[in-house]
Amino acid sequence: MKKVVDFFKLAERLECEYRLTRMSDGACQSVASHSWNMAMMAIALQPLLKETINMEKVLKMCILHDLPEAVAHDVPLHQQNPDICAKKHDQESCVIAQIVNLLENPEISNCFKEYEKRVSLEARFVKALDRLDTGVQHLCAKDLTYVGGFKDNFYWKLFFSEDFAKSFDFEPALKDVFEEIKIRVSNRLKKEFKIDSSKFIRGENENS
Length: 208
Fold this sequence. Notes:
Blueprint lengths: L1 H11 L5 E5 L5 E3 H15 L9 H10 L4 H4 L9 H22 L3 H11 L3 H20 L13 H6 L2 H5 L5 H22 L15
Antiparallel strand pairs: 1-2
Helix pairs in contact: 1-5, 2-3, 2-7, 3-6, 3-7, 5-6, 6-7, 7-10
């Protein structure tokens, strides 16, 4: 039981690790909150999916996928480069080994590997939920000005890019819900900031 309690102490630290994303009360979103949101969205979307999916695997992946950040920490996308990503990957691999040892369950390692490789339907679904939560926070954030506060509108260009949208193409329900979120985010930008979201599409001149 000592190892299990040690795992609980490690996992609790995820509640203290914060993402760049803001919430409806203006506070930064914790990584634990992000993981919970993904699990909630998985439950809500399951009946709408075209393909049959293993929900036990999905929920486990949602809860575990960012757990190594309890030790390795979250690194915002605009700060990432090949060296930082390589270092973070090595740190997270060490944390995963630590988690497997504490829980004495090698299946945990398989769960992380499956998510990282994105081969299974469940892993692709979880990655889509990871991105979908970004859109939900764009709808809920008390103030969206922080999103545009990074060089050359980095995060808006990412959110409205074709590459981002492709994450949902494999499942019609995901594609539809993302389109609905994107429309609402676009409307919010137009209403609150008089900004036309079409200018954020990659490859377009911002002033066009």
